[in-house]
Design goal:
By secondary structure, the chain is of the alpha+beta class. It contains eight helices and nine strands. Strands 1, 2, 3, 4, 5 and 9 form a six-stranded antiparallel sheet that branches. A three-stranded antiparallel sheet has the order 6-7-8, with no helix packed on it. Helix 1 runs antiparallel to helix 4 and helix 2 packs antiparallel against helix 3. The radius of gyration is 26 Å and the shape is extended. The N and C termini lie far apart (72 Å).
Length: 281
């Protein structure tokens, strides 16, 4: 991980991440939903086949003390401190009654191939600028993440079993001989069998969804994220070159036609009349 937020995943693949906020889609009118959907489609079409990207939706347990500090209203000594104190006490009381304590965040990570960091950095920065502008046109607030921000996020994912504070400084790397991975790695990983795993003291499971439906409801993702539990939903998206996509479709059509002809031949050999399928010769 580099300080500017670029991560070298392999020797030739580099990524950056942008955090984005919610947009009020479900409560919008139908015509507004259509406009949002069309804008989102244009946004996805921006990514060509040379850019791999991933949408990440994280519902993670947050530290209670962090919540408490965020909802405390500082006193101003202007005659309204009693109102501020009463409102802060009400918020603290509601926090203590809550049973989920989840922090919900959303990210878009994109990556490209490059010979080295010098060649990959200019293009990553151009893509990041275009992504931020596309989000702005959708009315969505988005901010790029620095290297420290991404490391802090990884640390939160890998340490869901406790409230351990992330401590890191770029100045510590050279004297210690450590890498950025050493500051975010969990205490242990255990993959015994199947889709179950253990990370530190936390048990989890990994699942994937293969969607075969001809039509998707726009609430599918929202229903996943409405579950009040620690979970991470990733959507891995890879654009296909138009020429290759056309070849793939034609190849599929040819396979279907061949399968159809084979079934017709089997029916003829079995004695079925192709003009009257309900009658056997």
């Amino acid at each position: 991980m580099f300080p500017d937020g670029i991560c070298r995943v392999t020797d030739t693949f580099y990524t950056k991440t942008v955090q984005f906020q919610d947009i009020n889609y479900q409560l919008s009118q139908n015509e507004d939903k259509t406009a949002i959907f069309e804008g989102w489609s244009d946004f996805l079409n921006y990514f060509d086949s040379s850019i791999r990207f991933q949408l990440s939706f994280l519902n993670l347990s947050a530290a209670q003390d962090g919540f408490s500090r965020n909802i405390v209203i500082p006193l101003q000594e202007d005659g309204f401190d009693d109102v501020r104190q009463e409102y802060s006490d009400m918020l603290q009381n509601q926090l203590s009654k809550g049973n989920n304590g989840l922090a919900k965040t959303k990210y878009l990570t994109f990556g490209i191939d490059g010979e080295n960091i010098r060649t990959a950095k200019p293009r990553l920065e151009r893509i990041e600028t275009d992504i931020l502008n596309n989000f702005k046109r959708l009315g969505v607030t988005a901010t790029p993440m620095s290297g420290a921000d991404r490391l802090r996020l990884f640390h939160a994912i890998f340490h869901m079993d406790g409230q351990e504070t992330f401590r890191f400084s770029w100045d510590w790397l050279a004297p210690s001989g450590l890498s950025t991975k050493d500051f975010i790695a969990p205490s242990s990983f255990e993959f015994r069998n199947g889709r179950m795993f253990r990370m530190g003291k936390k048990f989890g499971a990994a699942s994937f969804v293969q969607i075969m439906a001809p039509e998707l409801n726009d609430r599918m993702l929202a229903d996943f994220l409405d579950m009040e539990s620690s979970q991470i939903v990733n959507l891995h998206i890879q654009s296909v070159d138009q020429v290759n996509a056309i070849k793939t479709v034609k190849r599929k059509i040819t396979d279907l036609d061949r399968a159809k002809i084979e079934e017709q031949k089997k029916a003829v050999r079995a004695g079925y009349d192709m003009l009257r399928p309900d009658r056997v010769k």
